[in-house]
Write a structure and sequence with these properties.
Topoisomerase I, Chain A, domain 4, about 170 residues, mainly alpha, elongated, about 0% strand, single chain, disordered N terminus, disordered C terminus
Length: about 170
């Protein structure tokens, strides 16, 4: 209202967030990682098919499933960050763009180790999840904040791996 260009800003962000969970699609700094390309290619193929076809329905389901998995992983990370006291910073810590850099090249090895350990020893990622480079940047930020070990401990407590090596994909335990 009143010719204020920012009145619908929240609605636009919410819409963009639904379309792309990692950054706004119109952002020129948007990072296109492998998982982004997979999703994009699925959408392109689906849009070329007849909406009544079985192939279209299958691809549409796969796209929805992938988006939900990405959304759930981001939600899990955000939940832990907020529990660690990063309520105001959680979204910015999870934001990865082309301009994102590793704070210290010496942290790269430690960040990879922690990310792999999170994948193997917790349920923060779904079973079929391929490790995403964007979470390497997030772990690097946590190392710089001296919070990576606490994040791992919290992830282990909130999203523990089930006995026998199976992951529980239903979310956190009480």
């Amino acid at each position: 209202s009143n010719n204020n260009p920012y009145t619908s800003f929240g609605a636009t962000l919410a819409r963009d967030e639904e379309q792309n969970l990692w950054s706004t699609p119109h952002d020129v700094t948007h990072t296109e990682a492998d998982d982004d390309r997979v999703l994009y290619n699925m959408i392109v193929v689906r849009n070329q098919l007849d909406k009544d076809s079985e192939e279209w329905q299958k691809l549409n389901y796969d796209i929805y499933t992938l988006r939900q998995a990405r959304k759930e992983v981001r939600s899990r990370w955000k939940h832990i960050l907020e529990d660690l006291g990063f309520q105001k910073e959680a979204d910015s810590l999870l934001s990865v763009t082309k301009l994102s850099i590793i704070s210290d090249s010496q942290n790269m090895s430690k960040a990879r180790d922690i990310l792999l350990k999170l994948s193997e020893e917790t349920n923060i990622f779904p079973t079929s999840w391929e490790l995403s480079e964007r979470y390497l940047f997030v772990v690097d930020r946590l190392i710089a904040l001296d919070a990576a070990d606490e994040f791992f401990k919290m992830a282990s407590a909130v999203y523990p791996k089930r006995p026998g090596g199976d992951r529980a994909d239903e979310g956190p335990r009480p």
